[in-house]
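Sequence only, no structure available. Ideas?
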Amino acid sequence: MRSLFLTFVTGATASASYLAWTADSFIQHGVKPTQGYSEATLYSGYEAAYTLTRNETYVEWYRGQIDGAVVLENGTIKDWKSEFYSLDNYRIGNNILWWYERTGLEKYKNAADVIRAQLDRHPRTATGGFWHRQPNYPNQMWLDGIFMADSFYGKWTRLFDAENETAWDDIARQFDNIDAHTRNQTSNLLVHGYDESKQAVWADPVTGAAPLVWNRAVGWYFMSLLEVIPLFPPRHPGRERLTRYFTTLAAGLKKAQDEDSGNWWLIMSEPYPGAPGNYIESSASAMFTFGWLKGIRLGLLDENEYLEPALKAYHGLIEKFVKADDEGTLNWEGTVEVGSLGSNGTYEYYISIPLVENDHRGAGAFMLAAYEMERR
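Reply:
I predicted one. Tokens follow.
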């Protein structure tokens, strides 16, 4: 794999960078332009690639993915369903706001406002948390949903309504709710979600919590904390709480890191690491690696404590999940296709889901980890 990489990066159009190699490769693979959260995650990787390299090819390709396929010239979102309330659909708002910040064009602001207005109408639990989806998952909050909706909520508020204390309180409430109901205080890891009504087949009858720690759900939450903490007004008490959620989760991930690979198991709950059917999974491993590296850069984590395990994790990603084909194009391996609390939430369910090559969520997370590594 390394010899193929060296051959690839010595070409005239490539640079000696895993970030650039991934960016170039996925343009070659082809990415269907959609507003799905998988593509939105990959697009965040391209934002990082452009920030580091200033390669205009990336931003031109990215704009081609957004204009027309997502944001229309009149400032609406293509095929947007204003009465379909699914947090997954809101993640693309972060990418739309990136384009507004870059260009200042009102069509991007107007498109972001469509999503922001839908948040105001989105169904909530009795304690104010956003349902993951209506009607499929009533009264349920998933870690996934924090990444999908609340990063956008925070970014939009910071840009356009920064003095709105009620909005910041509401954003903090989403994190407070999910953390209070899903965190294991011994391991500092969080289960996939909870049902405030305690009616779901997987819900604990007392707490409403899901039974297992699914790694990518934790990865979504870990990344969202890093996205939102810097946006909060410094004096707002929510900023301190979210910082505590992040640092204690970072410590839990350190304990859960696999000693041999440097990465993390699909199901992280004891006694499942190392159990038959479980495996080291790539998307969450990239998310956790990114989170440690960015946490160090932001001063939230002690470099003396976290840099060495972060480097081990990063090199583990490269050794296990980065593969090159005969043409020198990068392929990203080892990402689980899905994980849903629309299931029975059992161990057998999670390990039954197949792996996907070149998954956009895993590749996007790896690009973000590579960005943090290469900017050091």
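The first strand starts at residue 85 and ends at 86.
Hope that gets you unstuck.
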